[in-house]
Amino acid sequence: MSFNTFGHVFRFTTWGESHGPAIGAVVDGCPPGIPLTEADIQPWLDQRRPGTSRFTTQRQEPDQVRILSGVFEGRTTGTPISLMIENVDQRSKDYSEVAKAYRPGHADYAYDAKYGFRDYRGGGRSSARETASRVAAGAVARLVVSEVTITAWVEAIGGDAIDPANFDVDEIGRNPFFCPDAVAAARWETLVDAARKSGSSLGAVVACAATGVPAGWGAPLYAKLDAELAAACMGINAVKGVEIGDGFAAATLRGEDNADPMRPGVDGPEFLANHAGGIAGGIATGQPVTLRVAFKPTSSILTPVATIAPDGAATEIATKGRHDPCVGIRGVPVVAAMVALVLADQKLLHRAQCGTTIG
Ligand SMILES: Cc1cc2nc3c(=O)[nH]c(=O)nc-3n(C[C@H](O)[C@H](O)[C@H](O)COP(=O)(O)O)c2cc1C
Question: I need a surface site. Which of 4, 22, 37, 50 has the fewest CB within 10 A?
Fold first, then answer.
């Protein structure tokens, strides 16, 4: 009943806190025989690692992953895969003010209300340090769905969006924002710098596309592929919205404009549009699976905000310590990991019921 586990067949459980000795994940249900080493996981963790640019938190964590179990002679054995990442750069004194007052927008008050006792150092379990464990588990999931290509990027920061005409997938890895539009990335340097220097923070929209998902993955009704993706991404820290395909914009369209017309193709049906984001009836259609994720602005800011102390007294808090000025940036590898984890689970579910991994 404590909800640290996600998935049905391909399941993972995360553990650990921001300022404990280590964090990690246990991946269970992974098929045996898949070649897996730490080198398969590390590049994805390096994408999420803090301290890589002035646009992210300056906490210096190497985020080196160790595989403790579930792999023998370089291949998965089918037993639980335990992944561990040590915390090496904790500065608990930075968080003394968080012990004395709740950060509005963060989980401090809610954790106290529920548990009556909280590890306030760096936010404890509510810190997005936890998302490193998801990225490590996601790296294993990617090997299970090697037929799928998952690409994620930042589409907007602080309401300033990319120009789709400038979209260049190779640009995503060239700037510190995971931005596919070089012109927007240049603007965002000024935007994020200004927010950080003024003691404020910005929200962001992260987009993700998974290509190569075979028609047929997913499930009707109670484990719809869109519902699973939404749950996976809503479960990421600071996420306040998820859209599949056109999402809320679909509600403004007429039926004929929102339909994804079909025609016969060489390898099965061809679709002339993808408003549905590659999912119909909870099941993949074979089109790219597309989604958008809304990240709120970082709650821990230097600008003072009215709040209360744990004894109920009125006060205000200006959060020092090291924080991301825009959490959506480092949210990109986390979104991609969660999509991989859902797809791996759905692939194995499809095989369990239908006896095949393709539709
Ligand atoms: C990659 C990443 C980094 C984050 N870094 C911070 C941070 O430095 N400071 C902060 O206040 N919140 C940060 N957050 C968000 C908090 O973890 C989150 O707001 C908090 O746990 C409350 O949960 P909620 O926003 O989902 O309600 C981060 C989120 C992500 C995804």
Answer: 37
For the cut 80, the answer to whether the pLDDT of residue 136 exceeds it is: yes
Sign (positive/negative) of CA torsion 163, 169, 174, 179? Answer: positive
57 CA: nearest ligand 1 atom: 8
Instruction: Quote the ligand 1 centre to 71 CA distance (angstroms).
Output: 32
Pocket perturbation via mutation, ligand 1, pick of 53, 60, 106, 200 by most ligand atoms within 8 A of CB: 106
* Residue in the block written with tokens 């792999």: 71
DSSP state, residue 298: P
> Is the minimum distance from the CB of 201 to ligand 1 under 6 angstroms?
no
Instruction: Give the tens place of pLDDT for each residue, 258-301.
Output: 999 999 999 889 999 999 999 999 999 999 999 999 999 999 99
Q: Decide if 215 contacts 286 (C-beta within 8 A).
A: yes
Shortest-distance Cα residue to atom 12 of ligand 1: 298
* C-alpha angle 306-293-10 in degrees, rounded to nearest 5: 115
Q: What is the Cα–Cα distance from 179 to 156, expressed in whole angstroms? A: 9
330 lines ligand 1 (CB under 6 A): yes
Strand 11-16 to 5-6 pairing: antiparallel
For 11-42, give the DSSP string.
EEEEEE-TTSSEEEEEEESPPTT-B--HHHHH
CA distance 72 to 65: 17
Core vs surface per residue 86-101: b (16+ CB within 10 A) or e: bbeebeeebbeebeeb
**66-111 tens-digit pLDDT:** 999 999 999 999 999 999 999 998 776 667 788 999 999 999 999 9
Q: How far is the CA of 294 from the centre of ligand 1 (A)?
A: 13
Most distant CA pair in the chain, distance: 69
Give the amino acid at 326: C
CA–CA dist 198, 158 (Å, integer): 14
| The pLDDT value given to residue 6 | 97
**What distance in angstroms lies between residue 72's CA and the mean position of ligand 1's atoms?**
36
**Average pLDDT score, the chain:** 95
C-alpha 324 – ligand 1 centre gap (Å): 8
Give yes or no for residue 299 CB within 6 A of ligand 1: yes
